[in-house]
């Protein structure tokens, strides 16, 4: 597994690569615009070129994470239109920046029911991909809080099955979310990962490496530092040495005092070869 972290794009997106280098990352995740706004500032051609060159020079693999406002399952006209627009904007930014993967939480049905929500997500992805993007969308496994969709293997397979853009959809794991959703990565690693790989195979591209403040099946999403939470160190040792994850981007999302350096070192120290 490549080990990296979610890096800030503050001031200029190309600085995220410098930050990743300073932390000892082997890969990174970024937002492609302010994650709490619908509209983002335009990335200048100079900035985009610096980012692309930084990627090429460092050899980093990279993924983007979507804005938190987007809900692909929304049935509210206003939110829906804004979500489709923002998703198009972010995917075109990814293409421009040579980012091959775009991670997004599948969406929330907000009372309309899971079945309807799942169909809505598949339809929305198809609508967005009418834009003809290169970048692949990775549906992130979630903890299953509220009416969020994407907490189970079935949810994800149903979305993929209903979509006409299947080859553009991949999967992003998140150890914290999955543990909270009932995947026992702590005491049943072998069976759980076997089931996941049988279902998703090479669609798995990114693994968010977060420990969990909340127990198994709590359905609550609270990130904790590696080894300091309910999942514990053993899981991370197994994951970084798991051959099935060798090409996958392992991404830390819980900064230690805004500095991932220590956690990256810790994860690297778990490597057996
Ligand atoms: Zn995550």
From TrEMBL:
Its EC number is 3.1.21.2. Zn(2+) 2 binds at residues 140, 174, 208, 253. It comes from the Bacteria. GO terms for molecular function: deoxyribonuclease IV (phage-T4-induced) activity; DNA binding; DNA-(apurinic or apyrimidinic site) endonuclease activity; phosphoric diester hydrolase activity; zinc ion binding. Zn(2+) 1 binds at residues 65, 105, 140. SUPFAM superfamilies: Xylose isomerase-like (SSF51658). Pfam families: AP_endonuc_2. GO terms for biological process: base-excision repair. Residues 18-269 form the Xylose isomerase-like TIM barrel domain. Endonuclease IV plays a role in DNA repair. It cleaves phosphodiester bonds at apurinic or apyrimidinic (AP) sites, generating a 3'-hydroxyl group and a 5'-terminal sugar phosphate. This is Probable endonuclease 4. The lineage of its organism: Bacteria, Pseudomonadati, Deferribacterota, Deferribacteres, Deferribacterales.
